[in-house]
Design goal:
alpha/beta, Rossmann fold, 8-stranded mixed beta sheet, two-stranded antiparallel ribbon, 10 strands, binds S-adenosylmethionine
């Protein structure tokens, strides 16, 4: 397990936000990790992703990734990378935020002996320090819409992918309930957050954990299907699938629903590694609505030979 620092032009505002959010969400769980606890939490994580038909379950099965060179861009606290390493992938994981790089390295170190060698780098997705055609699979979950130049970061992701290799990427979906109702209408219009503030969506998204928010998320972008097709032009077999709808995200009413939801459906321990807490289990209604108006695009495509 190696760790390197190659961030050429530090993006302090981005690192600051995601570093503070790391402390709020993950530091406590990370402090208690042992190899046994991590293995148990990875089993829980796999179970939660399977329930949600998340791309980490549907497009990154052990059969698909064992023995493959996989790059995760924006690995965050390393839950996804550790899961793929435990499935036999040769992981290279990058993130711009030092706290998250250390957290990912910690998890991959705890797997040593049970997974292929892995490396973690602190680097910017917009300037990847890898040769062209280095990886069989490039995976990125909810990252590229938070960087300054999404087109450039995506071009980098596809540059380092081998011809015939596969990209598995989550980007936020504009054609969704969460964007138009919870964000645009309630936060943007009713609460007046969008007036005169080009980053109103960034400010309205992403914070979590128990701490009061003291820093702002610099960037969040959302995409229509046409926008995604434009971003991935030139790739073959582009598949788009929507997911991730939650009643509890509806402002005000959602808080009441969340209490009912946890009583009715329970909370899944698979959330610990990726949200720092148990995940309130989605109802079958939410799973179905997610396929129509979810906030996530699960994107897969191949790089032509
Ligand atoms: C929403 S988190 C997702 C983390 C992880 N993929 C997950 O699903 O748990 C966004 C991550 O993107 C990282 N990030 C943002 N801009 C980046 C950039 N330009 N280069 C590399 N990582 C970046 C942040 O540090 C953060 O860890």
């Amino acid at each position: 397990m190696t760790i390197e620092e190659t961030t050429p032009d530090a993006k302090g505002d981005i690192q600051n936000f995601w570093g503070r959010l790391y402390q709020s969400l993950y530091a406590e769980n990370d402090a208690g990790l042992t190899p046994e606890i991590l293995h148990r939490q990875l089993d829980d994580l796999a179970d939660m992703f399977a329930y949600r038909a998340h791309m980490a379950a549907t497009d990154m099965t052990a059969d698909m990734i064992r023995g493959k060179r996989v790059l995760e861009i924006g690995c965050g606290a390393g839950g996804h990378s550790a899961l793929f390493a435990s499935r036999g992938a040769h992981m290279t994981s990058v993130d711009i935020t030092p706290e998250r790089v250390i957290s990912s390295k910690h998890k991959l170190d705890l797997l040593a002996g049970d997974a292929p060698p892995a490396s973690v780098l602190q680097t910017d997705a917009e300037n990847l320090p890898f040769a062209d055609a280095s990886f069989d699979i490039v995976y990125s979950n909810g990252v590229l819409h938070h960087t300054r130049d999404t087109e450039r970061a995506l071009a980098e992701a596809l540059r380092v992918l081998k011809p015939g290799g596969r990209a598995v990427i989550l980007l936020y979906c504009k054609s969704s309930w969460h964007y138009w109702i919870n964000m645009w209408f309630v936060e943007g219009i009713l609460r007046g957050r969008m007036w005169g503030d080009p980053n109103w969506l960034g400010k309205a998204t992403e914070w979590g954990g128990k701490d009061t928010q003291t820093v702002e998320n610099p960037i969040t972008r959302c995409y229509t299907a046409a926008g995604i097709r434009k971003l991935f032009v030139g790739m073959s077999d582009l598949q788009l699938r929507k997911g991730e709808f939650y009643f509890y995200l509806i402002p005000k009413l959602g808080r009441l629903y969340r209490r009912y939801q946890i009583k009715r459906y329970g909370a899944h321990p698979g959330g610990k590694l990726v949200y720092g807490e148990d995940w309130p289990i989605q109802s079958p209604w939410e799973l179905a609505l997610g396929r129509v108006m979810g906030f996530a695009w699960f994107i897969t495509c191949d790089k032509p030979d």
